[in-house]
Amino acid sequence: MASKKISKLTQSVHAGSFGDKLFGGATTPIFPSSAYDYEGVETAPYPRYFNTPNQNSVSEKLAALENAEAAMIFSSGMAAIMTSLFAMIKKGDHVIFQNDLYGGTHHAVTKELPRYGIDFTFVDGSIPENFEKAIRKETRVIYIETPSNPTLKITNIKAVADIAKKHGIITIIDNTFASPVNQNPIDLGIDISTHSGTKYIGGHSDICCGAAMASKKLIQQIWDSAIHFGGSLEATTCWLVERSLKTIVLRVRQQNQNALAIAEYLKTDSRIGKIYYPGLKDHPDHAIAKAQMPGGFGGMLSFEVKNDVRKFTSKLELIKRAISLGGVESTLTLPHLTSHKKMTPAERQAIGVTDNLVRFSVGIEDAQDLIDDIRQALD
Ligand SMILES: *Cc1c(COP(=O)(O)O)cnc(C)c1O
To answer: What does the alpha-carbon distance between residue 307 and residue 310 come to, in Å, rounded to a whole number?
Structure first.
């Protein structure tokens, strides 16, 4: 098998997983030890060192799915993102962020970076040249997130990676919305891919975790800081993530199909306003999305309901209101009440987050049942 490129479907089941050597069981056992023999090994396993058997097992699977040399599993998405970022920068450095960021990341960087003397610029990520214009001689990192939350804007990953490479700048992406099934930014020249594993990687709305994937060299650099910051994940949850990942390809493929079917239906219903889904041919960046998301366009879409939107969400029977995303069950939020609550109405308006915008995380249910639920709630 070594010479053949192994498919993601096979990797999702086998990479990193190992059987129970003691009793011949088929699946990876849970190893709860926090104390290991140090004799004859360079670094003994220790939970905060991110090197216990269950941490290694899930990290290996994550690296395989993201086409990365190495990966680390963290206790949350923010732990993965902030540790990766802080491991790359120091006092006096400058970072460029795209302005459409996950609310938690936006809040974290605007609050934390100034306290450490790290300057930053936000740019409109839809035009790659904007990043180049913002580069200074102190710029160390360019940070992007695509598709974006909640209006599913697309940043041209390869164009941004090429600009950064030309200037010797590290690139970090938040790849949460796409999942490793649909988009592998490292193939396009990105240095570090991060995920909130709480979403598609866990996939069942019951795990909080995060991941960073990169070259061995950069993962070593992240590790050097991570062991100081903590933020590692304990054995049982690692094992649950490894188990969840065995079905990630099946789950995400179904979510891709469902989201496209629902977006197509929404286009035909006159009670719906704007629809945001990169899989629709009339999405402004459909061509770029198609090129950089070979696995599919993802399970996230947003749309405007022309009538009373709170009434609409209260009439849904199958689709649940819930703030997170990426689970097997379909959930939705109204971003103006949740993720974008802290912005002023004018700020929200400027980025398309109107009071009647619904952000929909499509699950793995039958697409027609979901469409029927939306239709009856609109009725
Ligand atoms: C949820 C989320 C995060 C943060 O992840 P946590 O697991 O909650 O720490 C970061 N980025 C995106 C795009 C997210 O959806």
So the answer is: 9
DSSP 8-state symbol, 53: H
Q: Counting atoms of ligand 1 from 1, which one is nearest the CA of 208?
A: 7
**pTM, whole model, 2 decimals?**
0.97
- With cut-offs at 50, 70 and 90, classify the pLDDT of residue 2: low
Are 304 and 354 in contact by the 8 Å Cβ rule? The answer is yes
Identify the architecture of domain 248-378 in CATH: Alpha-Beta Complex (3.90)
Note whether 317 and 376 are within 8 A (CB).
yes
- For ligand 1, atom 4, name the residue with the nearest CA: 77
Q: Give the model confidence (pLDDT) of 190-229 as tens digits.
A: 999 999 999 999 999 999 999 999 999 999 999 999 999 9
Q: Which of the four CATH numbers 3.20.20.70, 3.40.640.10, 1.10.3730.10, 3.40.50.2300 does domain 8-245 have?
A: 3.40.640.10
Q: How many CA atoms lie within 13 A of 161 on its CB side?
A: 17
Lookup: tokens for 126: 């839809």
Could you give the residue numbers annotated as active site? 48, 102, 174, 199
pLDDT tens for 255-298 read 999 999 999 999 999 999 999 999 999 999 999 999 999 999 99
User: What is the spatial distance between Cα 60 and Cα 15, in angstroms, rounded to a whole number?
Assistant: 6
What is the spatial distance between Cα 256 and Cα 362, in angstroms, rounded to a whole number?
Answer: 8
Residues with CB under 6 A from ligand 1: 76-78, 102, 104-105, 149, 174, 176-177, 196, 198-199, 208, 210
Q: Where are the domains of the chain?
A: 8-245, 248-378
Alpha-carbon separation of residue 290 from 84, 251, 297 (angstroms)? 28, 20, 8
Helical H segments across the chain, by residue range? 8-14, 53-65, 77-86, 103-112, 129-134, 157-166, 179-182, 216-229, 235-245, 248-268, 286-292, 309-315, 345-350, 367-378
